[in-house]
Amino acid sequence: MKYSELGLKTNLEEKKVKLDNGATIFVKQYLPISDKLSLIEIALQNSLHADGYYDPMVLDFMFNTYVVFCYTDIEFTDEEKSEIGKLYDELLSTGVMKKILDAIPQSEYDELFGYLEEKRAAAVQYKGSLADAVQTFMNDLPRNAEAAQKIVDSFDKTKYAEVIDFAKAANGGKLPE
Which region, left, alpha or beta, applies to residue 7 given φ > 0 means left and ψ of -120 to 50 means alpha? Predict the structure, then answer.
């Protein structure tokens, strides 16, 4: 049997959710894998601290806010999205976040969260690996080469000779070993 004959289609089912203010929203019951990958990447990128660790609090609010963005039909302006912390606080404190997350099948949410944790753990492991050290070295090489070139350019042979002569004199006419 050919795959095309199976008649399979991606699940596009949505659950209707009534909010306390009377508004009705729709929550997807399944998110395509490409969207899941994007959601996870964005949450991880935005929660990576400058010191190289993932801030768990930022990871939690980024992940759950992006779940709202991706699973609901709520439209957010760029300005609203630029204040994502405020947006998260409003969604969480009003109970809207809970209603949305409760409307997503538990297995779907657990699978998504599991992918997030696996990808975070893999990234943390990579950060401590030789591959990361090599990558960091390669990224820093041009900057370090420039610094080395400045040292070479400012090298004064006369001062070097004076230091050698001083070392000889201090060591009875011989260079220290």
Answer: left
- Between CA 59 and CA 46 the distance in angstroms is 7
pTM score, two decimals?
Answer: 0.70
Four-CA torsion 127, 120, 61, 46, nearest 10 degrees: 40
Show the tokens assigned to 149: 């070139």
Cα 145 to Cα 18: distance, rounded to the nearest angstrom = 61
Rounded (10°) angle between helices 96-103 and 56-71 = 70
Model confidence pLDDT, tens digit, residues 88-102:
999 999 999 999 999
Unique residue bearing structure tokens 């976040």: 97
Query: Both tokens of residue 2?
Result: 């050919």
